[in-house]
Amino acid sequence: LAASLSYDTMLIALTMLFLAWCMYLAYEKSSVEIKDVVILALILVLLEPCKIVYLPLTGLCLLIPKKKFQSEKHYWVSLLTVVAVMAAAVFMMNFVVVAAWAKDTQNYLSWSQTPGFTLADVLHDPYHIFQVYWETLVVKADYYQATMLGAYLGNLDPELSIPYFCIFLLWGVLFVCSLRQAGERVMFTGGQKVWTVVLIVLSCCLVLFSMLLGWTPKDFTYITGIQGRYFIPILPAALFLLYGNNLTLGKDYTRGALFLECLISIYGLIRILSLRCFV
Known about the structure:
It is globular and about 60 Å long. The chain has helices at residues 8-27, 34-47, 72-103, 119-124, 126-147, 164-178, 190-214, 235-240, 254-277, and strands at residues 108-109, 114-115, 180-181, 248-249. With 279 residues, it is mainly alpha-helical. The protein starts with 7 loop residues before the first helix and ends with a helix. It is built from nine helices and four strands. 19% of the residues are buried.
C-alpha cells in the first residue's frame, strides 16, 4: 500500500495523526492555544475531503474539555471555526459526487453490467438495506479483519499473503499494546467511550454505504467491493476503547510485542519476495 498510488496511504497516516493530536490536547496538554486549533483544522482539511465516510470521526474533537481553553467563548469560536473550515473543504471536493448520488434514479455498474442500488432504494426499503448490512457482516467479517493486517496483498491475490497464524499474532500485538499498564491513570471516561463507539459505528456504516451505492449489484445479498484497509482509519479509535481499569497488565510487554511485530513483518516480506521473485 505504501508503494502504491492509493491515497489511502496518506489517509491512514492523517487519521492516526488526528487521533493522536486529539488525545494529546484532551489528556496531556494543560491548555489549548490558537496554534493547536490551527493544526487540528489543517489536519481535518487534508483528511476529510479524501473520504467523507470518516467524517463522524471528527467528533473525537469533542473529547477536548472546555476548561482547557482560555474561556467558553474561545472554545465555541475554535469549535465553529474548525467545523466551518472542514465543511467548506468537504463541500468543495465532494459536492458533485454527493449531488449525483442524490439525483440518480438509476445506477448501472459497469464492472458487473448490472443495475446497482440507488439512494431511492435505501429510502424506500430500509429494512432490506438492514438485511444487506447484516448479511455483509456475517459473510465478510473474517475477510475484513484478515485484509486489514496483511492478507490478499497486491491485486487481492490469495497467494500473495501471510499465513493466518501471523495475522492472529498481529492482532495479539495490537491487543497487548492497547491495554493499560499498572500505575497508569485512566482519564478516558465511560461517557467518552460510549461517544467513541457511536462515532465508530457511524463511520463503519458510511464505509458500507459508499460501496453499497458504488459497487454492489442490486441482486447481491451482501455489500461487495470493500477491503479491510478501509477500516484501518477507524481501528485506532476502536483499540483505544480497550484502555481502562478492567484490563490491566502487571508488566510492560510493549517492547516484546513490537519486537514480535517486526519479526512477522520480516517473515512476511521474505515470504512475499520468495513467492514473486523465486517461484
